[in-house]
What we know:
This protein is α+β, with helices and mostly antiparallel strands. The chain is built from 7 helices and 15 strands.
Amino acid sequence: MTPQTPLNGFLDIATEAALAGGAVLQKFWGKLENIQEKRPGDLVTEADQAAEKAVLAVINRHFPEHQILAEESGRQGNRESPYLWAIDPLDGTTNYAHQYPFSATSIALLIDGIPQVGVVFDPFHQELFRAATGLGATRNRQPIQVSQTETLAQSLLVTGFAYDRRETPDNNYAEFCHLTHLTQGVRRGGSASMDLAYIACGRLDGYWERGLSPWDIAAGIVLVQEAGGQVTAYDQSPQKLSSGRLLATNGRIHEALSQELMQVQPLVWNPPSIP
Ligand code: IPD
Ligand code: CA
Ligand code: CA
C-alpha cells in the first residue's frame, strides 16, 4: 500500500492481524507448557511468542516498509518510515496463564508518533474493538460510545499495577485506596488494552495507570478517543506514550479524576518480602 492508503485500509489489516493473534491465543488456551518469568510477576509464554509471530506475518506481508514495535521481539523495520505498528500479541498474560479469560491481542498503527488506528480483539468473548481517527469506534462492527456517568460517586473505574510495583513507592497503591473510597468501585482488569476498550464501550467510566508500554495502550487510546472519551496525562496535559502513564475517561469525570490523582500522596508501607 502507498502512503496515501486511507485509514480504513490500515484498519482492515490491523483487524486481520489481531484476529490471527487471537486465534493463536485460543489454540494455546489451557495447554501452556512453557511459562517463564521475565521478572517477578512478569510472565511470558509460548502463546505470547506464537501469537506475535502470527501478527507479524500479517503486518510484514502487507507493509514490509513500515516500522514495528512488538513486545516480544522489539523494534524492527525501516526507522525512516512514519508508520509504526505497536503490537501486544497477548495483553493480559497473567490472566491468560491462570485461565482467567480477560486478555486480548492489541494492534495499533502510529503515524508520525500519533496513534491513529487501534484494534483490540478478545478471542474469549469474541469481541472485536476497532477504531481509526475520524472513523469512530466499534465493537463487533457496531458503533460504541463512552458512558454518560457524571460523577466519581457514580463511577466504576479500573486501574493496574506495573511489574515494578515492589521496587517503587510510585506503585499506585495509594491512588487505588483513595479512589476506591470515592467511587462505586475500582477494578484491576489485568489487561490495559481491554481496560481501555471497556471505557470506549461504556462498561467502565475511567482508567488510570502508570508503568505502561506503548503496545499496551496505543490501540486503546484510539478506541477511547473515537468513542467520545478523553485521554491525557494525570494532570490533563497531553498524554505522551513514552511517559507510560495515562488517564482515560468518558470525559465527564475527567477533571474530577485528575484532581483526585494529583493530590494523592504515596502510601508508606513496608511490603512483606517475597518468599
Ligand atoms: C500488562 C497488562 C496489565 C498492566 C501491565 C501490563 P502484559 O501487559 O496490560 O493490565 O497492568 O502494566 O504490562 O504483560 O499482560 O502484556
Ligand atoms: Ca501488555
Ligand atoms: Ca503482552
